[in-house]
Amino acid sequence: MRNLGYTYVYIFMICTLVNNLAYGQIDCSSTPKPANDLCQEAIPISGSVNGNTCCAGIESIDLCGSMENGIWYSFTPANNGSLIEISNLSIDGPIGIEFYSGSCTNLSLIEKSDCSGFETRSFSLPNCYAEVLIHITSFKDGCGEFEIQMSDINECTFAETCETIVPELEFNPISDGMQEC
Length: 181
Prior knowledge:
By secondary structure, the protein is mostly beta strands. The protein has one helix spanning 2-22; strands at 43-44, 48-52, 69-75, 82-88, 95-103, 106-112, 120-125, 132-138, 145-152.
């Protein structure tokens, strides 16, 4: 009989945890902030990574205007440019995505999203930057998980300068070796 009581307690605790996670009601007073909560703490990435905006702060950078959580990543673009795909796994509501060059004290915006909710967004960035910072934001009540996947853009190997690589979502290579991006 005693084990049955513990079973009910465990079931209640699991149901409460699942409900809180499903509806973005995580108690941030007992949950540590993400390690990459601040720009200076951006986590270097390559390939792919899963992240979570819950319990993060927003600093003073919020291009969407009303976001409450934000986290940072950094990467070095590939020689020919990089394709970055961001998939929304459980964020509810608007999602802000910004790409910056420069240092955290002197950021220069490269590209940004339209601050809407989405399933997957793709961005292509030229190889003009030594390091790119990615800032992903959400509402506190709509916080959740996402996935970043990065891949090299191989179709632009003949581009001579940064100006000849234009961020596009579709590439149309020409067979004579003079690629058009």
